[in-house]
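User: Let's play a game. I give you a shape written as tokens, and you guess the letters that built it. Ready? Here's round one.
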């Protein structure tokens, strides 16, 4: 099987590539080149979000790749996400249509609720919309054919359970922070038992997150965290297989049956992150890697504090 065709089958039969290109913090200029380099290297999944402010540029790159005959629309898997204001009551369908217009697409392959906590447009007010109401809106856009699959991001098990209990379109995918130092076994077990596929974000430990700037130019405070790319056990497995530490961290997740969307705007790292299909990390090596027992959430999503749908409220106690 060629790397481009390695997929995970969602509960509705849709096939999702195991490896995609992440694009958070990729500027419009950077992302055009990154998407082109990625697709030419074999990537078929691109992960974006309205909140990344690069959907238009990604749409341009996709259009050019199709015009150049590099790839067909049907071979691509485009994921985008609705931000907190777009999951507020009555907002989702027009939000998805806006994303589709920017991406120059008739449908996306996966549409995610970026968060479980709705807010107003400038996030100055929390909106107490229960996840059931949010999920009914996802059910509607799926049934309208605007997306081939629907899912959630940063939702906890209980919230996903409440969406599933509605008995409408099931949650097809859960995208969560998941990496060696935040292994999320409980969440993965829960999702597997409910036939929900899982995508890991920050698989490399998101080393670039500390440079993130809010739209007003302010920087966020990030808790200091050890670098997984320098973990002694990761380095030792990398040496054994003649691969890089990044490739070992990515494979650690893929070998647990989880999709990955590493972000890079550097062509050689984009290729490196896709060149992971000639080795695997065994269950014994996964155990060994996890021996450090470090468990550190990097993305605390503090803006949810006090919201009735704060997904991480239990962890904050
Ligand atoms: P990540 O993929 O773990 O790390 C990306 C960082 O690592 C960038 O700074 C990148 O720099 C660097 N990098 C990439 N490949 C590398 C390699 N082979 N060796 C060393 N460094 C490397 O973190 P992320 O961007 O936070 O997460 C991945 C994607 O998940 C995002 O881009 C986004 O699409 C998604 N995401 C979703 C959420 C959510 O709430 N749903 C949150 C965060 C992220 P260069 O670009 O310079 O290579």
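Assistant: Ready! My guess for every position:
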């Amino acid at each position: 099987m060629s790397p481009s065709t390695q997929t995970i089958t969602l509960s509705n039969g849709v096939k999702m590539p195991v490896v995609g290109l992440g694009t958070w913090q990729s500027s419009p200029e950077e992302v055009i080149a990154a998407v082109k380099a990625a697709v030419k290297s074999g990537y078929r999944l691109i992960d974006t979000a309205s909140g990344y402010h690069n959907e238009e540029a990604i749409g341009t790159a996709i259009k050019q790749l199709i015009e150049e005959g590099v790839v067909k629309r049907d071979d691509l898997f485009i994921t985008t996400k609705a931000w907190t204001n777009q999951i507020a009551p009555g907002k989702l369908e027009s939000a998805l249509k806006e994303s589709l217009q920017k991406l120059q697409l008739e449908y996306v392959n996966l549409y995610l609720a970026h968060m479980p906590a709705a807010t107003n447009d400038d996030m100055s007010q929390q909106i107490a919309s229960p996840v059931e109401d949010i999920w009914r809106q996802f059910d509607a856009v799926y049934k309208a054919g605007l997306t081939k699959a629907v899912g959630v991001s940063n939702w906890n098990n209980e919230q996903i359970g409440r969406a599933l209990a509605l008995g409408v379109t099931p949650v097809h995918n859960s995208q969560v922070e998941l990496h060696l130092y935040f292994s999320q076994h409980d969440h993965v077990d829960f999702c597997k038992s409910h036939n929900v596929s899982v995508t890991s974000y920050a698989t490399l430990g998101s080393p670039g997150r500390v440079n993130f700037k809010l739209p007003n130019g302010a920087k966020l405070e990030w808790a200091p965290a050890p670098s997984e790319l320098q973990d002694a056990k990761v380095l030792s497995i990398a040496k054994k297989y003649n691969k890089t530490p990044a490739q070992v961290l990515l494979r650690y997740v893929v070998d647990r049956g989880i999709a990955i969307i590493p972000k890079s705007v550097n062509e050689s790292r984009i290729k490196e992150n896709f060149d992971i299909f000639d080795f695997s990390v065994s269950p014994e090596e996964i155990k060994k890697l996890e021996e450090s027992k470090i468990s550190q959430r990097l993305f605390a999503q503090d803006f949810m504090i006090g919201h009735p749908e704060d997904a991480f409220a239990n962890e904050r106690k």
